[in-house]
């Protein structure tokens, strides 16, 4: 796996591109007019994307009819010297459709305990928790 990072303006806007040519913009979001996400926001996005792919894949294999899937991710940061790493992350999943709530809960559990490489990478230093809501009802 490899990405390239290129600075694309005179400030802090960077384009990160993978080997397939897909890209995201990173920026210093503490500056006015930022045009990308902060690197720390991208970590939260990666957790949501990784676990989201796992959950949808697991639910499809279980023949669950997911009509809508979304997530919200909140990260709590702490001061460590001059850095502010994440202390904890909470992922809230929202699943709609003809979906068994127990299967959605199990899919989230499998993602975080077994499959999600992003949360596994963070795991030694960051507590990652999750909640699952199916058709408006928290599981």
UniProtKB/TrEMBL annotation:
InterPro entries: KH_dom-like_a/b, OsmC/Ohr_fam, OsmC/Ohrsf
Coiled-coil boundaries: none
PANTHER family the record matches: PROTEIN YHFA (PTHR34352:SF1)
Protein name: OsmC-like protein
Originating gene: yhfA
